[in-house]
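Hey team,

Filing this mostly as a record. A colleague (T.K.) asked me to run one chain through the structure pipeline before their review meeting, and I want the input and output archived in the tracker in case anyone asks later how it was produced. No errors, nothing strange. Just documentation.

Input sequence:
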Amino acid sequence: MNKLNREEFRALRAQAEHDLAQSREVPSILICAGTGCIAGGAMKIYDNFKAECESRGLKVYVGLKHDTDEEKSLHVKMSGCHGFCEMGPLVHIEPMGVMYIHVKPEDCHEILEKTVLGGEVIDRLVYHLDGVAYPKQEEIPFYKKQHRVVLGNCGTADAEDIEEYIAKGGYSAFEKALFEMTDEEICRDILDSGLRGRGGGGFPAGRKWDGARKQKSAKKYIVCNGDEGDPGAFMDRSVMEGNPHSVLEGMMIAGLAVGSDEGYIYVRAEYPIAVKRLEIAIEQAHEYGLLGNNIFGTGFCFDIEIRYGAGAFVCGEETALIHSMEGKRGEPTLKPPFPAESGYLGKPTNVNNVETLANIPIILTRGAEWFSTIGTEFSKGTKVFALAGKINNVGLIEVPMGTTLREVIYEIGGGIKGGKKFKAVQTGGPSGGCLTEKHLDTPIDFDNLLAEGSMMGSGGMIVMDEDDCMVSVARFYLDFTVEESCGKCTPCRIGNKRLLEILNKITEGRGSEKDLQTLST
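Output structure:
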């Protein structure tokens, strides 16, 4: 495809919106193709559906377009993560809105026969709770308390189709920023929205962008931090897998705001599906003239490359990440100077994590005021969390800031496995802490979690029950930090090892009162 100007892009969007509306009249099968469901056999389910359709003479479409006069046709799509990971593999049937759980490849024949062609719901494949069947996703308690903003397209769209992303409003925020806003206005909108960095630090994103914007340099960089090293965390991975274009669009808008023509996505090599879908998205954006030189004939140039990380936890810290990108040892450095002043190759660099960037197009499209109405006074918007551990509904969730731990664990998470007693939830990764029963009514936001001795972190939540030993939990996280330490600083290199030795003694039954005193000092 030749590079588009603004009018041609708008015509393309109008056509994509029309095709999407038309496609909704044709039955669609959306198979969750996130990492968890793929591990459970989702690709075999996808292949079986296509084979079943072929055997019945049904024409299968994988994009938005279809022959409107073709009666025997349907869409079969690979979507991103639906979030309800505990119940995967998941299959969604549209326009009925039916969601099936724990689907097996051998179920494809029955689903096609009874549901897609016959309009009948298969009771044994729908979610049941306390004797009640929930055939539709929006009715399931797991989803009811959620507010899926960043995850809005994950599970509802083909993760590898740029036209479906455009049909749902994709790249319209970039178009608006490119033609209707100055760099200062973009930064002001992000600042007014109240968006704080979702990677753990919680620094106001608009202030960070404006700091990089004001730097006098002919070369600046935009970096997306997709490293995500916390144990039990899979939020950013799922966004990259399920809605990669939202990340690209956020980076492109950041490039406009900061004055950069070059962006990098730093993603760990252990995320092959995320890497593949990002590569496809970048290729598609090039094909449509959304990346490259002279975008939409405006003279603005911006391109994006992927850089691979080796899975070092320390490289989630922005200065260590930048060193890794430069081919150096992944070690943090003291700030200042901040990356906005001197970052990648010594040039001003803006670093945001995946979830932060995925929020940007939504803010510019719906407005800073809309975004700021969600959440709490000092923590605006929603937050994506990975629920893991001893909880019934392991999965990916998105809730407004200010939602309580009790709501997340008992209403969305479905309570503790086996009806056991809740003991604690670990938040914030190895740098965070554990919150107990007395903290269950704590509203989840940056400041409340810090006040209670933990932190938001990137969004991992690991739930523990009455059988878990908190000393063993502490020992596990110390073992992790010792293993992942870059070795640069003495407290981490030596102090953590001494702490781990004491905790090993205690967990092996060799501890003493003196050990407790040593730990406390």
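Quick notes for T.K.: The mean pLDDT is 93. The two ends are 65 Å apart (CA to CA).
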